[in-house]
Design a protein that fits this description.
By secondary structure, the chain is of the alpha+beta class. Helix content is 11%, strand content 27%.
């Protein structure tokens, strides 16, 4: 068999194919209410009618009990507690942040589910239980997006206890 035939029979390991997909997404009632509120600087969650847990961002139905939330909303604070964190040292084409940076799971005051975001702090200062607050874009730049929150920053409040 010639070298050309052998090469033709070898499997191709990598093919780069750029793809672009445009989506038209209908947010639905619950997400639309949430997105309209965040455009006004409000953070809305919804309460499960079965166990009273507050989900943020709001959803149309409770994922645990399968019941709809209805129209009752809970306005949440933009302060919260770092539940866990990660120091990111690997670049990503989709995240234009300077390495290393800190991602956090923050439990907003009044919510029972976490929000994943970025923390602006020294790497050595971040810890679980740290109290943080959202830093918002200038109001004239707000849209219907969670990107209205630029990042979270530590605040001068005592850490939450481990048990809480």
């Amino acid at each position: 068999m010639s070298d050309a035939n052998e090469a033709a029979n070898e499997p191709i390991a990598v093919i780069r194919t750029p793809i672009s997909l445009d989506y038209h997404y209908s947010a639905g009632q619950s997400a639309s209410r949430f997105l309209r509120a965040i455009a006004q600087g409000k953070l809305l969650g919804q309460k499960c009618p079965v166990d009273g847990r507050v989900y943020f961002p709001s959803r149309g139905a409770c994922p645990q009990h399968g019941v709809t939330f209805g129209d009752e909303v809970v306005e949440l604070s933009d302060k919260g507690t770092v539940v866990t964190f990660s120091i990111v040292r690997v670049p990503s084409e989709n995240i234009p942040l300077e390495l290393p940076y800190i991602t956090i799971n923050v439990l907003l005051d009044g919510a029972d589910t976490i929000l994943i975001h970025v923390l602006d702090a020294k790497l050595e200062d971040v810890r679980m239980g740290m109290r943080v607050q959202a830093v918002w874009k200038p109001k004239e730049e707000w849209t219907t997006s969670t990107a209205n929150i630029l990042y979270f920053r530590p605040i001068d409040e005592p850490d939450a206890s481990y048990d809480s």
